[in-house]
């Protein structure tokens, strides 16, 4: 048919050898070109995290297959070359699709859901805000926030109370991102009401929507009578009112300061992204500014919390990794707060986090929609296809990883490069890849390094006796089903003998300092 010859010519132009094409297109070519198809039922997926059954289907059907749910169908991609094509080489042919529809109510046209010209303009405006000097300032913020958490854990250790670490990490990263994005002190480690509750209401709603097969929230009357929807509207209004006042306060500061705007512009009192954006000329009344701030709040909160949760879970199962990690932290940091220089030196810490992100990628799938016809893995596809790139499958693919299921930070030698999507050729996508790659990758990596280093220096962590089994469920990120309940104990740090002299001197010199050995 005309289509087949068109396709053949297209492939020929792409450099596919004519001989191969002749073989391919002779006889029953339909079979050759049809994407393998798996049919599913929503019931089969059930309560299980939806990306889990996709793994077995990947082993059966390969790096690209079609999953059919009644009238709906999705292409599931688990092949690094196809992922690279969609995310990087031909990224212009893809939009955020369903994701943009689901998140519209909270992110509007913020950077994550936005497409086309809006995305490009905002990417160019927002990325410069996360410059080197900003990230360096954030290290102090990570230290202070983690230090507050350490104090909390210290009293739990004294009282012999077990701690649910997942919610603790969620609060830690909320405190950090609030300050980092718009200079707001959620103080959620100690305070649980009002705005903090509103943020969680909105997050839970976003997760529910991404899981729900029927968009009840779009039904006009339902919106007004459903108690849940009413609660969401009230929460959104509270957050937006707070945002408005934060923007107003920040604008005043910007107007009063003498500082000239330049490339590494930063106000020392308020290094926030909001401050940078207003100083760079963003309009205070702009809805886009609010959308981008909300987007960064959510993007930088849940993901970072999930990374810490799964890292501590994995560490609790591998005491040898934990010991090696503690050894590195003791020798690099001693008793100091981590600094920017330490980020390079804490190599094993950084590998532990990379390996945690391999096993538990956040989010576990990337969502796209084709906006032009294309060819994926040799199969022609039409515009309008909804695509899930399963980062979970890529990261656990037996084709690319030795012992894919095992938590083994040693798979990346310390004298080699930090693993990323480029040096792993899209088999590893902790922060995505191509033009839509995460803008907070360095921020997030340093945040995790600081938090992990400071916590394991001071405490040992074990699964609490009688803790519920740790199983997975999904929203935007991978959550545990029933929390991560741990017993936290102060470390007896026999290993830092060289430090002892200093510690004793401190204790003698300052009666307030109590020995922690
Ligand atoms: C995009 C992961 C932290 C802001 C992404 C993407 C991934 C990702 C995989 C690509 C999404 C896609 O292609 O569909 C993570 C992880 C984090 C993290 C694992 C923590 C460990 C942060 C932080 C911020 C942030 C702290 C904000 C400062 C963004 C934004 C985008 C994005 C704005 C959209 C970029 C664009 O489309 O141009 N992130 N992220 N992320 N992330 Fe992150």
Automatic annotation (TrEMBL):
One of its GO terms (molecular function) is oxidoreductase activity, acting on paired donors, with incorporation or reduction of molecular oxygen. GO terms for biological process: xanthophyll biosynthetic process. GO terms for cellular component: chloroplast. It holds the Pfam family p450. The keyword Metal-binding applies. Its cofactor is heme. Heme binds at residue 438. Keywords: Heme, Iron, Metal-binding, Monooxygenase, Oxidoreductase. InterPro entries: Cyt_P450, Cyt_P450_CS, Cyt_P450_E_grp-I, Cyt_P450_sf, Cytochrome_P450_Monoox. PANTHER family: CYTOCHROME P450 FAMILY 4 (PTHR24291), PROTEIN LUTEIN DEFICIENT 5, CHLOROPLASTIC (PTHR24291:SF171). Belongs to the cytochrome P450 family. This is Uncharacterized protein. It comes from Spirodela intermedia (Intermediate duckweed).
């Amino acid at each position: 048919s005309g289509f087949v010859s068109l396709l053949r010519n297209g492939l020929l132009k792409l450099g596919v050898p004519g001989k191969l094409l002749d073989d391919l297109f002779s006889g029953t070519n339909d079979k050759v070109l049809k994407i393998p198809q798996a049919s599913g039922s929503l019931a089969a997926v059930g309560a299980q995290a939806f990306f889990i059954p996709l793994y077995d289907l990947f082993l059966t059907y390969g790096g690209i297959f079609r999953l059919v749910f009644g009238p709906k169908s999705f292409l599931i991609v688990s092949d690094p070359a196809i992922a690279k094509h969609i995310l990087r080489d031909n990224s212009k042919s893809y939009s955020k699709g369903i994701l943009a529809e689901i998140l519209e109510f909270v992110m509007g046209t913020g950077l994550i859901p936005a497409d086309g010209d809006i995305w490009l303009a905002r990417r160019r405006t927002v990325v410069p805000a996360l410059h080197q000097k900003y990230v360096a300032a954030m290290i102090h913020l990570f230290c202070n926030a983690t230090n507050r958490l350490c104090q909390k854990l210290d009293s739990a250790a004294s009282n012999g109370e077990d701690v649910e670490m997942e919610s603790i990490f969620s609060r830690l990263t909320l405190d950090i991102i609030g300050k980092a994005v718009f200079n707001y002190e959620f103080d959620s480690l100690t305070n649980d009401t009002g705005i903090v509750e509103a943020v969680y209401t909105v997050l839970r709603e976003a997760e529910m929507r991404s899981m729900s097969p029927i968009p009840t929230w779009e039904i006009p009357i339902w919106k007004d009578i459903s108690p849940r929807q009413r609660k969401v509207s009230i929460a959104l209004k509270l957050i937006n009112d707070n945002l408005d006042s934060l923007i107003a306060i920040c604008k005043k500061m910007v107007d009063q300061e003498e500082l000239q705007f330049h490339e590494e512009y930063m106000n020392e009192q308020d290094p926030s992204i909001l401050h940078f954006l207003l100083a760079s000329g963003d309009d205070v009344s702009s809805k886009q500014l609010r959308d981008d701030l909300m987007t960064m709040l959510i993007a930088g909160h849940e993901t970072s919390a999930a990374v810490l949760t799964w890292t501590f879970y994995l560490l609790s199962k591998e005491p040898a990794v934990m010991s090696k990690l503690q050894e590195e932290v003791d020798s690099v940091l001693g008793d100091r707060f981590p600094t920017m220089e330490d980020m390079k030196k804490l190599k094993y810490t950084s590998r532990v986090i990379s390996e945690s992100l391999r096993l538990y990628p956040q989010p576990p799938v990337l969502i796209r929609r084709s906006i032009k016809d294309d060819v994926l893995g040799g199969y022609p596809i039409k515009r309008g296809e909804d695509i899930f790139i399963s980062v979970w499958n890529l990261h656990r693919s037996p084709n690319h990883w030795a012992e894919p299921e095992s938590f083994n930070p040693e798979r990346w030698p310390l004298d080699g490069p930090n693993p990323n999507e480029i040096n792993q050729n899209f088999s590893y996508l902790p922060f995505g890849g191509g033009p839509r790659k995460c803008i907070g990758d360095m921020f997030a990596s340093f945040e995790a390094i600081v938090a992990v280093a400071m916590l394991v220096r001071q405490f040992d962590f074990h699964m609490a006796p009688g803790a519920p089994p740790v199983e997975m469920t999904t929203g935007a990120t991978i959550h545990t089903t029933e929390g991560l309940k741990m017993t936290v104990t102060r470390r007896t740090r026999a290993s830092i003998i060289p430090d002892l002299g200093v510690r004793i001197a401190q204790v003698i010199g300052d009666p307030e300092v109590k020995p922690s050995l």
